Amino acid sequence: MFFETPDGTRLAYESYGRGAPILFAASWALSGDMWEYQIQFFVERGYRCITLDRRGHGRSDRPSDGYDLDASADDIAALIEHLDLYEVTLVGHSAGGAELARYLARHGDGRVARVAFISAVLPFLKRTDDNPEGAPEAALRATLAEFRTDRPKWFAKQTQIWFATHLGNDVSPALIDWMLAQCLATSPWATARLFEAAFHADHRAALRAITVPVLVVHGAADASARVEITGRRTAALVPGSLYREYPTAGHGLFVTHADELNDDLLAFIKG
After folding, report:
1. What is the pLDDT of residues 79-101, one digit of tens each?
2. pLDDT at 202 over 90
3. Could you tell me which residues come within 8 angstroms of residue 48 by beta carbon, excluding any fewer than 6 positions away?
4. What percent of the chain has pLDDT over 70?
5. For this structure, is 222 an active site residue?
6. pLDDT for 51-77, tens place per residue?
7. Would you tell me how many other CB atoms lie within 10 Å of the CB of residue 65?
8. Average per-residue pLDDT in the chain?
9. Does 82 qualify as catalytic in the annotation?
10. What is the Cβ-side half-sphere exposure of residue 222, based on CA atoms within 13 angstroms?
């Protein structure tokens, strides 16, 4: 299914099941298909599951602009309004979590029941005087240079680290190839621009202002968004948040720890 945003971009979304709505925001460079192991679980338990392919990703249009987090948040708002969703649970992974934080900051929580930040690139990745734990700008520039030189090689290097297979997480070569294919099918322009936008976005004030219930889930072995500068700090900033940390999980915990994640999400929604 498709809908059109106010700027004329055609975005793809999918909706399964009936009941209380859950909107899943995908990771950077991945489409809504990444949530395969969550959708079936929640539909079978009476929920409506909605996924969005952000612009430049999956089956959506690939315009030249709109890859900042404000535009992403506005696209999410447009989908929520298009479907007329209320009391929706928002679940975002990695950059999808950052987009949801920006959505709440720009559009408020009038339609939102709760939000879950999964391996989210929050609260602020860039190193500054008041954020000395962050990564230097040079690290971002080096990654962008690798994209320009050999983007498939960069993604291929991340696969084992992404799933933390060195800790015994069982991920088949076929599943890794499937995930890699999703990343490489994403617009190269969108890949670079969203990566850059997420790196520079400061969500600290927005996180402190959240008033709906929040679940933060992160892997202790996450090499893409190190837990000490992301998950733990996010949980500390959000008033009354619930924090879950998986000792053997990397960034791709929605696959490697799907059962544990699904159970935690379900308990959070029911709670």
Report:
1. 999 999 999 999 999 999 999 99
2. yes
3. 15, 16, 17, 18, 19, 20, 21, 22
4. 100
5. yes
6. 999 999 999 999 999 999 999 999 999
7. 11
8. 97
9. no
10. 26
**Looking at 27, 60, 94, 187, which residue is catalytic?**
94
Q: Are 119 and 261 in contact (CB under 8 A)?
A: no
**Catalytic residue chosen out of the listed positions 53, 74, 75, 222:** 222
Task: State if pTM tops 0.70.
Answer: yes
- Of the residues 74, 251, 257, 264, only one is catalytic, namely 251
pLDDT of residue 239: 93
Is the CB of residue 174 less than 8 Å from the CB of residue 149?
Answer: no
Pick the CATH number of 2-270 from 1.20.5.170, 3.40.50.1820, 3.40.630.30, 3.40.800.20: 3.40.50.1820
How do the domains of the chain map onto residue ranges?
Answer: 2-270
Known catalytic membership, residue 119: no
